[in-house]
Amino acid sequence: MGQSIRWRVIAINTFLIFHLLAIACWCAPFNALPFAVCRTLVAPYFNFVGLFQAWDMFAPGPKHRNSYLEAEVLYNDGSTDYWNFPRLDRTGLGERYLRERYRKFEEVLVQDRYSDMWPDVARYVARQVVTKTKRPEMIMLILNWSDLGEDSKGNLIDSPWQSRVFYRYRVEPDDLN
Fold it and tell me: pLDDT confidence of 60, banded at 50, 70, 90?
């Protein structure tokens, strides 16, 4: 085995071992010190490549909110329209499985600490809706949500839907290329 091939094998094995250990530490549902240290070390990398996993979907504190994103588009001719982000609750099981990462993207996108991503998302929407006759001038990203609760009998109930514009973006001509 040549020296070059030996180094490639070592690099690939190191990469695989790192990922297996990092994923095991990240996904373990407890906070012992070695796991917490490992999570702290790999968090920037996992967040960057989309491998993060939160256990807040499960007990003891599951999420108590239904939500979805949409964008209101204001066109140069004065008209408005809405562009819907994918809604997994309106897809079949196969597509829902394939787009599960999108659900996580949508959950974190609205957080202020990820506001750096908002202009890119707005530009993406603008490129989706531009036509030969209508050019988007403003994109407003909107969070819609309904909190879940329980009635006196323990039945799950929805609160009325609420909406909030969390970002406004003025579209520049260069954004549409």
Answer: low
For every residue of 67-124, DSSP letters joined together read EEEEEEEEETTS-EEEEEPP-GGGS-HHHHHHTHHHHHHHHHHTSGGGGGGHHHHHHH
Contact 169, 118 (CB under 8 A): yes
CA triple 99-72-85, angle to 5 deg: 5
Question: What tens digit of pLDDT does each residue of 72-99 get?
Answer: 999 999 999 999 988 888 888 888 777 7
Please name which of 116, 96, 109 lies closest in space to residue 142, comparing C-alpha atoms: 109
DSSP, collapsed to helix, strand or coil, labels residue 12 as helix
Domain boundaries, the chain: 3-49, 65-176
Q: Are strands 156-158 and 136-150 parallel, antiparallel or unpaired?
A: antiparallel
3-class secondary-structure state, position 125: helix
